[in-house]
Amino acid sequence: MTQLAEQCMDGAAYLLSSKAGAEALLRLLGVANAKQRKAFCRDLKGKWAPLATNSVDYVVMMRVATTVDDTVLLSKTMVAEWIQDMETLCFDKYAHKVLAWLLRPGDAHLFSPYERECLALPAPASQKAPAKRQQELLRTLKPAILGVLLQKPLVAAVDQSAKELLAAYLSSDWDEALIEALVTATVQEAKKEDLGLLNNGTATHSLIVLMKLEPEKGPHLSQQLWERCLRPHLVAAATSRCAFVLLDMLKRDSLKESILMDLRKKKGVIEKALATTEAAGLKVNGAKNLLAEVK
Predict the structure, then answer these.
(1) Could you report the per-residue pLDDT of 188-197, keeping only the tens digit for each?
(2) What biological-process GO terms show up in the record (predicted)?
């Protein structure tokens, strides 16, 4: 493979034009020397962001980020170009995976077996410790990702791609400012008709996933969502998709009694609202399961 790298790396950028070429490049990057990798990175000037959003080449971008030891070079080229288009990348079907890998490399909840297999290919020419490489790349990349998520936390939570990046970020760093931004966004959204984006299956699933990431110490997302967002709009929440969020909250001893007490107080109103919702042809399984918890 080393001999093959010597023969092919000069024109390696052209391999990105096909799936077969990209898969060959995944292997070449593991054996290419520092000089060859540097030349390859320079050949991609102005193309880093488009390649990260490409359905084939995004995996190559992940491989570059995990094999090239010269993180100063990557920061000046790859990372610098990504930062210019960070919002687009965060919400992109493929690019969000590139960013998420740097935050949570190898996470089976976020990446497919194919992606993990590609990133696990041998890389004997890489000398730097993976954790150190990751830390050096995230030094400038992580604040840029956070900036996008802080601006649009709830929009990210309802987006099929960005929600994975949001989970990856909070898995790696339970950031207090990001939690506050997300809760504040839900509070504002709850004031809208039918709870706005909160009455969305993707949103409720995302909130449940994020609540499961809560550390023992630090801001508790579940408690803040209950007290500031759902409790003030309990009837609407209980008869919407947010019922599933409330059901998940009931699994927490710290919240269970408070939620059940409020549900008992408003049970009659909730039942009437439930009947109206069901008569309109809307699904109410979550609400029925929630009321079943009220003894």
Answers:
(1) 999 999 999 9
(2) regulation of translation
